[in-house]
Design goal:
Elements: H1 8-13, H2 16-24, H3 30-36, H4 42-50, H5 56-62, H6 68-76, H7 82-88, H8 94-102, H9 108-114, H10 120-128, H11 134-140, H12 146-153, H13 160-177
Helix pairs in contact: 2-4, 4-6, 6-8, 8-10, 10-12
Amino acid sequence: MSVDPKTPEDYFDAGVRARYDIAHNPHTSPSILAQLYTDVNPNIRLAVSVNPSTPIDILVKMSIGEPTMIRQGVAANPSAPISLLTELSIDKDNIVRQSVAWNPNTPVDVLIRLSDDVDQYVRRGVAKNPNTPVDVLIRLSGDVSRGVRQGLEKNPNTPPQILLQLEALEVAYHVTES
């Protein structure tokens, strides 16, 4: 049996799976997403938080007082405004800061600040972000975390000489472990 909602209210009567699919679909109208963001099911709200069609005012509301996974979704949203990404970059939860670091719209000044984050996964996100300045990529090549250095290998802007140094470090790492 398929669910074919006719009015916005009908979306709330749909089953959880149907509401999730609607919330996750990038073609869902902003007005429907604005209603679904209040859903009692956190998975529905998570789907709304990552949907690029979600209105900015809803993303802002979802970034305050919501569970970590919802704030993480907002931070990963490609439509999140720079001001919101900047605010989320100082979130207490590292997983939210990590999503900010991975977001391709995160401003350079925020990436530079996050490159010094205490959490290695945040720094790895910065290392992978194609907007990270080359001087920061070079600095991160000396990071104590192997994961951060591996993140540099995924960045198309990492200078070739750094990639060669990282390859040599990997070879030395495997020799030492053998």
